[in-house]
Amino acid sequence: MTEESIFLDYVGDNPRMRILQYLIEGRDFDYTLTDMLNAGVSWGTLNQIIPKLVTLEILVKTRKIGRATLYKINQKNMVAKQFIVLYDTLILQQLRALEQKTQIIA
Which helix (H) or strand (E) segment is 101 a member of? Predict the structure, then answer.
């Protein structure tokens, strides 16, 4: 069973958005392709999407460890920045609504 995501409710639940959400949530870290499998997408899909996101400069290659290349979201890219702002705004909105609901109950 997967957890509901307010971000995916707004932008659509598809492999590209799942990968972006995963990278936005861990925006200060870099990840291998194997790590990104935790986003809930298949290996084949990951190998199709990651090169496209690198070409669009939404992702950047950060380093290589052995044969593994590590990637992270490009926080200097304007499109990536907008996704991050949207994600943060939706999470804050959800937290405020939850806080208000809790105050009403208490």
Answer: helix 78-105
